[in-house]
Amino acid sequence: MLVSWLIGLVLLQGSPSLPACPEFEVASSSLPERRAALDACAAAANQKPIDFFLDLVSKLAPHDSRTDRYGAVAAGWSAEELSQEHICARLLAILDEKGSSASARVVALRALHALPPEKRPPSARVIDQFSIEITAVPAQMSYDIKAFTVSPGALVHLTLHNPDGLEHNLLVVAPGSLAEMGTAGDRMGQVPDGRAKEFVPDSAKVLSVMGLVAPGKSSSMWFVAPLTPGTYPYVCTYPAHWRTMNGKMKVAAPAAAAAQ
Ligand SMILES: [Cu+2]
Question: Going along 36-177, which residue ranges are E strands?
């Protein structure tokens, strides 16, 4: 524990604007282990754990692979701490800030969602959460669900089950960009680091990312639905899969969704 304190202290002193907490980032850590590491790093930085945590959150890159783990930590925080006025203000700033990454926004929204509605700031009192499970149909190169509808800005929890014999991923992409992102995935099959990048194109048109799911496994991701209504394709960009392995996420206000 002392070592992790010292590492955190050294790293913090080396780059005061960029908090770091190596023990917190260990992928295999359990939630209690993660919280203990975070508490130690925050103490070393002379900060309250939740403030230290929000500093880390604000640094999350778009489609950061740690997003779900950060979100689980956020959702596990006590209502007393999360509902403090300055914490709510910070969470709302991360949500609203144009410069915040998609990953930072989803962690902030999960923290607000963890609060009972009456303890949320008024502008976040109603948070629409939508859960969906999609299965890769064995030997069909397709998802079992071809379309679903969410409301703008909803907190979405999407699980992908893969009982197929091949790996698959699932990306939510910008309206009209299915073929462009699909062919970009195809090209990644021909470059050395394509697989290391899990065939995820480096493009602003990629809105949400679930990396490769191995045969027989399931994985899930959280994301915030776009605010702009429209039809957002979801697609597997493993080379040669995209033409049949895709679907449509419709973003529509609740009244419009009910009328569909
Ligand atoms: Cu696939």
Answer: 129-137, 142-143, 147-150, 155-162, 168-173
pLDDT digit string, tens, across residues 209-242: 999 999 999 999 999 999 999 999 999 999 999 9
CA distances from 6 to 41, 195, 232 (A): 9, 36, 46
Task: Measure the CA–CA gap between 215 and 15, rounded to whole angstroms.
Answer: 41
Cα 50 to Cα 79: distance, rounded to the nearest angstrom: 12
Report the separation in Å between the CA atom of 130 and the middle of ligand 1, taken as the mean of its atom positions.
23
Closest to 233 measured CA to CA, from 163, 152, 195, 176: 176
User: Looking at residue 14, what is its pLDDT?
Assistant: 40
Whole-number Å distance, alpha carbon 182 to ligand 1 midpoint, is 11
Distance between Cα 31 and ligand 1 center (Å): 31
What 8-state DSSP symbol labels residue 17? T
pLDDT digits (tens, 9 = 90+) for 164-176: 999 999 999 999 9
For domain 129-259, say whether CATH 2.60.40.420 is its number.
yes
Task: Tell me the pTM.
Answer: 0.85
Every domain range in the chain assigned CATH 2.60.40.420: 129-259
